[in-house]
Amino acid sequence: MDNMKYFFWQNTNSIHQSAFFKALARLGIGQVTLIVTENLPDSRKVMGWCEPELTGVQVIHLNSVIDHWQNIIEQNNSHDCIHIFSGIAAFKNVQLAFIHAKKYKCRIGIFTEPLDFRGLKGKLRQLRGYYHKIIYSSNIEFILTTGKAGVSQFENWRYEKNKIFEWAYTVESSSTGFSYQNLNYSDSRLKLMFAGSLIHRKGYDILIKALKNINDDFIADFYSLKEDEIELGKSIESKSGLNGKLRLLTFLPNQELRSKMNEYDLFVLPSRHDGWGAVVCESLMEGTPVLVSKFCGSSSIIKNDLIGKVLQNLDVMYLASQINLYLKAGKLASEQRLKNREWAQKNISGVAMATYFQEIVAHLNNRQITVKPEPPWMKNNEYATSYL
Description:
The chain is of the alpha/beta class. It has helices at residues 18-27, 42-46, 69-74, 92-103, 119-136, 147-156, 204-211, 230-240, 254-260, 278-285, 316-329, 334-347, 350-365, 376-379, and strands at 4-10, 30-36, 58-61, 81-86, 107-112, 142-146, 164-167, 190-195, 218-225, 246-250, 266-269, 290-293, 308-311.
């Protein structure tokens, strides 16, 4: 397996996969190449993203080799080459490469989030999924799909279960040195954090309504504003009736946001739909527990109350009651933050996911004599007690 070549065809070079790619390259199990079809969009840059440097990974931007991308496939279609594509018909140029790899009978994997099946568009996506299964499934060797919803989606489309592997986005390990001084006990108020765009899908409105039903003192900071939305933020704060408990702040560069997470006792993501929700992983990497909607793919990694809880519905009073549990428990203990960081490092880090990918490839190459591997958060569920 050391002589394998792995080609990841994606639309962008994302900060939410960089840790995995770098760790996979460090494993030394083969050559890792990322082929990128688009530049990072301005909308992501406004949110604090930047294109990561991938040490040990060959990164190819298709706009610089636009006439030669077919050669990558045609010259790497042997059994020791695996091509992994982002989605099925999700991105135009990635799909063109997928069709070309199918033509040359390459070993093909798919990496994808679950689709949003709400509304009429959702029903059409569901139908399209059945159609793609009919025309493509025989050419797809394996599927890496985020969360249990992704697994169920492909099972419902009647893909073979032994092809489907539960997957996760990965984020970089914390660069904020652990310090007991990170916790400000001079302020006894629980500090709650949300980060995401002010869009209906993210459920920020549900969180604001829930906070209005909490009597205890707290601070809720939403990192959600573009520079031209500051007045909108002030309006939302004023209309919320939370009297200074709610602060809407501008997006921060990702590294700065990650550092800020160490100042909070709880992160809340009440999305109505999220294919993954990488801020959940970022929060856990910093040791901050999470309340995350079951409609987020990342809810699949929450296996115990130590690291957080899954919101089983988005009822306002129910969400308020779950936040109240953390209010009653008090400030996050430094020992608990450290344990949460250790859990994240073991279960959702780049190293953990690269090792899992290595196990998947070993299984693909030897299906008859190996057991289908499980994701690390399913195997390493050693924390069973609650601190709430």
